Amino acid sequence: MRDASVHNPGPAADGDIHDVIIIGGGVNGCGIAMDAAGRGLKVLLCEQGDLASATSSRSSKLIHGGLRYLEFYQFRLVGKALAEREALLRNAPHIIWPMRFRLPHRPHLRPVWMIRLGLFLYDHLARRETLPSSTGLKFDGSSPLKPEITRGFEYSDAWVDDARLVVLTAQAAAQRGAQIKTRTACVEARRTDGLWQIVLEDRLTGQRSRHRSRALVNAGGPWAGELLASVIDTPVRRPLRLVKGSHIVVPRLHDGEESYILQNEDNRIVFVIPYEQEFSLIGTTDVDYQGDPAAASISPEETNYLLHVINNHFHQPLTHADIVWSYSGVRALFDGEGGAAQAASRDYLLDVHAQHGHPPLLSVLGGKITTYRRLAEEATDQLCELLNSPARAWTRDATLPGGDFRDHQSLLADLQKLYPWLPAATAQRFTRSYGTLTHELLQGARSMDDMGRHFGADLYAREVHYLIQTEWALTADDVLWRRTKLGLQLRAGAAAMLQDFMEIRSKWRKP
């Protein structure tokens, strides 16, 4: 589906004028593309790398209100996020599902009354439709925690496959007419004759094309400030603060399906989340960052910090040798008040630059994955008003591709009935990755022989070809670390074979 048609940047690439061109293929850019296309606007989105290749695939994988934000009095943000949590659970049940979180009590850090008050607010700042309320806990000898930790609390939030959320949102945008151009950078944006004149560069071929638009959206995430300064040539009116969050992945720390939220002496918290059946995901840190966001990686200090917090809580000790993978993401926050990075607001700001007679620019600053749909709705509301193109908001009850089913158990049962030859583990993974789109992936398959070449770790050529054709996948990393998480399990050398295979097959992708 990647649009690879490119031209020299002479006349416009086509005679049409776009209503909106969006720079950035993360969760916010794709969310705006979906909403705007669904309201009848002519939309083009460009992304310099793969969809969700930066911040949006390097999160803590949570749809949550942000319990810790209550300590910074961010009640509006928490309430807004909790309301969005309910909407997203309905709209994407294949990639978002409920999760219980256990909070061990450490009396020297926060008293019981403070935690109870925080959980009461968390339960009631927005209406809960499906998730159970918080409760107290007592830990016994079966607990994975150290024996001196005997008391705690439990509450509800949700888990998300963050990269798949972005890809499915882009699919929904494309289904409604949006053009999605990956590996395509915006290298020039100028206001001329009442329109934006945009030059795009195909990162694979170096060829450039020229496009025109009535409005421009800067959804560059940690590159938003750089885009304003060097590409769009518009003053940076809001100072951005780049904050790096890092995670480590280790062999599974406990058998239960619940997650843990651990308090530390510096008033930060660390999550321990069941991850891909065999692993635990641990994070995150919050440190100020300078440099190229694409080059962000975990530091020795961050690694030691996360191991220290775990070893203060779990009786199974962790060392550096236990870490099987790590990743880091950089967020652009608009908080300009200084202070600790963890205290900077995770709320978003839509900065509109619209002078009379000039095409508008909307820059997305800040935000968190949980509120992406709400952000996109507010941004599209403003775009429709600026373009004098009124249309009703529609995404709150919009099911993402593959999410049209009742529950995981019934969908899994349907898949096992229709495809009895499919291994149970594969059917389970497809349920939680593709939902009802599994039928499209398996169309015409009658046995495992029809799945094609096996690369290991439950990955077959049929799935790879599907991802090339329908999800803009072009490289092994696209498949192994964003469309799936099978990079955690694939044997050494298999990724190179997969890359060779994809370089040949990618020419089959749909135009």
From TrEMBL:
Domain Alpha-glycerophosphate oxidase C-terminal residues, every copy: 395-504
Q: Which residues form the FAD dependent oxidoreductase domain?
A: 19-373
Question: What are the recorded GO MF terms, alphabetically?
Answer: glycerol-3-phosphate dehydrogenase (quinone) activity
**Cited Gene3D superfamilies:** 6.10.250.1890, Alpha-glycerophosphate oxidase, cap domain, D-Amino Acid Oxidase, subunit A, domain 2, FAD/NAD(P)-binding domain
Keywords, comma-separated and alphabetical: FAD, Flavoprotein, Oxidoreductase
The processes (GO biological process) annotated in the record are: glycerol-3-phosphate catabolic process
- Requisite cofactors: FAD
Catalysed reactions listed for this entry: a quinone + sn-glycerol 3-phosphate = dihydroxyacetone phosphate + a quinol
Q: Which SUPFAM superfamilies match?
A: FAD/NAD(P)-binding domain (SSF51905)
Q: Name one GO cellular component term.
A: glycerol-3-phosphate dehydrogenase (FAD) complex
Write the Enzyme Commission number(s) for this entry: 1.1.5.3
Q: Which InterPro entries match?
A: DAO_C, DAO_C_sf, FAD-dep_OxRdtase, FAD/NAD-bd_sf, G3P_DH_FAD-dep
Q: Does the keyword Oxidoreductase apply?
A: yes
Q: What protein family is recorded? A: Belongs to the FAD-dependent glycerol-3-phosphate dehydrogenase family.
Name of this chain's protein: Glycerol-3-phosphate dehydrogenase
